[in-house]
Amino acid sequence: MERRTLGRPGLTVSAQGLGCMGMSAFYGATDETESLATIDRALELGVTLLDTAESYGPFVNEQLLGKALAGRRDEAVIATKTGVEITDDGRALGLNGRPEYVRRALERSLRHLGTDHVDLYYLHRIDPEVPIEETIGALAELVAEGKVRHIGVCEASAQTIRRAHSVHPLTAVQTEYSLFERGIEHDGVRDTLEELGIGLVAYSPLGRGFLSGAITSPDDFAEDDWRRSDPRFQGENFDRNLAVVREVRRLAADKDVTPSQLALAWVQHQGAVAIPGTKRRRYLEENTAATEVTLTDQDLAAIEAVAPHGVVTGDRYTPELMRTLNG
């Protein structure tokens, strides 16, 4: 698989990574055996960037990844996250970017992952009560100690990214980016990343599965699938967004690829490293094949016509979660 470099001096990763969250949380039933087999297959296919967080489970996802990488740690680039405070018994307490919590969380993540270092450590969300300089300063100390190799932030504003980068170089910013979510092209974030030489890692590059074309009704979700509360999957929003997906499916069929492959190829064409999440080998194999898809100028124009900025209907998250974005 093609390799890409995030940031300066740079972290080399596969052009497409794997989001591991759904293997342990939020997307219905899980199957550890299939999840482990999926991670193993990802490594076979040349996928090196494996993305997790202490809050996924909580802790369970990091533990799963640690189990999958036992004896083969050097084959993977591990990215995990802190900043959403979790007690040792698994209770979520809200955002916490205080240096003492960041350090304690990192030590716990290392235990769960079964490793002595994290390749890419993100601040999961920006704590408005703690100056970003203090949090990044703590992350920089962990880099100096060798426990973290590179740092990044998630869902941050252009101003916050600049402030963070002035304390210690950011290797990557992780944010939602897809044909359904193109806000960073218009709020200064994308321009800031290009100016500062910071890599872009795109989560939910398939619009939480919507752009795969496999979702045709809100009833397709299990009762414990959090997307049942996602505004984009509700009522009229769902119907309007499904109409866009039908157009994406048409373009994909014309090109003889799947809708997922077309959507992922578009994200990758923008220079981002996409981390589509899956917990099944067959979807992993479909997704990774997108790295072989070439988009022509004609393809890009056709995609722009059916999925321009602002085409999606509904907020990305519930009002409560929306308040944690763009810190």
From TrEMBL:
Please name the GO terms that the record assigns under molecular function.
Answer: oxidoreductase activity
GO cellular component labels = cytoplasm
Q: Name one Pfam family in it.
A: Aldo_ket_red
Keywords on record: Oxidoreductase
Q: Which domain of life is it from?
A: Bacteria
Q: Where is the NADP-dependent oxidoreductase domain?
A: 17-306
Which segment of the chain is annotated as a signal peptide? none
Under SUPFAM superfamilies, the record lists: NAD(P)-linked oxidoreductase (SSF51430)
Q: Does the keyword Secreted apply?
A: no
Q: Which residues form a coiled coil?
A: none
PANTHER family xref list: AFLATOXIN B1 ALDEHYDE REDUCTASE (PTHR43625), ALDO-KETO REDUCTASE YAKC [NADP(+)] (PTHR43625:SF40)
Its protein name is Aryl-alcohol dehydrogenase-like predicted oxidoreductase
